[in-house]
């Protein structure tokens, strides 16, 4: 990482972020990386409220439109009200506008989904008829594939709000992303981590994304220096898989890539909404010395799964859920 900055580097960065505690913690991570890179940099945090934050009385799947936790942040970038925005990468659609760039991926945490439940019971031991809260069709479909005797209920709000609702009796269990609980130091509430071949995470889950304007070369250069290279390759792989499937709306699609010893392994999942149909596959390729292999691996697995029957599932999903979105 370079520490000697030149005159062309930005003197000040305005960072757009959602206002939840987790979003602000994630912004702090990016700020710390930038300040460590270049101490003189002045940073201003600009809080932005998204549609997903404002409309809490309806399931996310009913809100529609592009990335309900992303749109307002991107609009602030395009209006030059901020210079960069920080996202949870899983919230960022794969079909980004050409005028915006995914400039950096960093700080990937544990990508697994986790369960919080009454009496700390694991999923398989929950009583028949248990109510499990999640706004993610991806999570619900995979768990329904394992058990048909449970009920899924929608839940909205930030992580502390959802946990409070669970603890007040709104549901018997709740499924969340491990990374968010880790960053909020709430990991002690977890009773089960789901293996990626049981509940495959959302593409990009647990990684941070920094977006900026494509034309801001100085900002792009600065952000590239704080990027985690392996996290970027895993993200490229997962997002290529998701993009090829066309699974950016409301479909239960999971993707989990991992780099070890110069190889990238991608686990993919496609499920029907009711969990009756579920496809899984896995692919491993050598990525060392050729970073472009990461995205190619994602494309290859998507094409393989579509040809093996995934296209029928995806077509049916699009017929069932037109023009809506759901939480990843």
Key structural traits:
D-Maltodextrin-Binding Protein, domain 2, five-stranded mixed β-sheet, 9 helices, 3 domains, alpha/beta, globular, disordered N terminus, single chain, Double Stranded RNA Binding Domain, 13 strands, 328 residues
Could you walk me through the main structural features you see in this protein, from its secondary elements to its overall organization?
Residues 1-7, 54-58 and 62-66 have low confidence and may be disordered. Helix content is 33%, strand content 23%. The protein is globular and about 60 Å long. Helix 8 (229-245) packs parallel to helix 9. The chain starts with 11 loop residues before the first strand and ends in an 8-residue tail after the last helix. By secondary structure, it is of the alpha/beta class. It folds into three domains: 1-107 and 207-227, 3-Layer(aba) Sandwich (D-Maltodextrin-Binding Protein, domain 2); 113-193, Periplasmic binding protein-like II (D-Maltodextrin-Binding Protein, domain 2), CATH 3.40.190.10; 229-322, Porphobilinogen deaminase, C-terminal domain (Double Stranded RNA Binding Domain).
């Amino acid at each position: 990482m370079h520490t000697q900055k030149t005159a062309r580097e930005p003197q000040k960065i305005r960072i757009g972020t959602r206002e939840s505690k987790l979003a602000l913690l994630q912004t702090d991570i990016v700020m710390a990386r930038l300040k460590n890179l270049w101490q003189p940099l002045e940073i201003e945090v600009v809080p932005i409220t998204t549609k997903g934050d404002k409309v809490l009385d309806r399931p996310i799947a009913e809100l529609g439109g592009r990335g309900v936790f992303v749109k307002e942040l991107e609009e602030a970038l395009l209006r030059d009200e901020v210079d960069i925005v920080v996202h949870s990468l899983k919230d960022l659609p794969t079909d980004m506008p050409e005028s915006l760039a995914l400039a950096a991926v960093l700080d990937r945490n544990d990508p697994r989904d986790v369960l919080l439940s009454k009496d700390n019971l694991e999923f398989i031991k929950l009583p028949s008829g248990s109510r499990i809260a999640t706004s993610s069709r991806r999570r619900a479909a995979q768990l329904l594939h394992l058990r048909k005797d449970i009920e899924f209920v929608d839940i909205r709000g930030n992580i502390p709000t959802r946990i409070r609702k669970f603890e007040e009796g709104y549901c018997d269990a709740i499924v969340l992303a491990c990374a968010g609980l880790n960053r909020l130091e709430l990991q002690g509430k977890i009773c089960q981590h789901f293996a990626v071949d049981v509940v495959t995470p959302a593409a990009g889950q647990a990684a941070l994304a920094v977006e900026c304007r494509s034309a801001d070369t100085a900002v792009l250069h600065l952000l590239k220096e704080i990027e985690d290279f392996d996290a970027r390759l895993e993200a490229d792989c997962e997002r290529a898989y998701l993009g090829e499937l066309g699974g950016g709306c409301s479909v239960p699609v999971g993707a989990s890539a991992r780099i070890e010893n110069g190889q990238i392994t991608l686990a993919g999942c496609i499920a029907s909404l009711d969990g009756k149909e579920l496809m899984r596959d896995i692919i491993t390729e050598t990525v060392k010395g050729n970073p472009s292999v990461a995205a190619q691996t994602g494309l290859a697995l998507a094409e393989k799964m579509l040809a093996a029957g995934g296209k029928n599932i995806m077509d049916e999903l699009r017929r069932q859920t037109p023009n809506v979105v759901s939480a990843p």
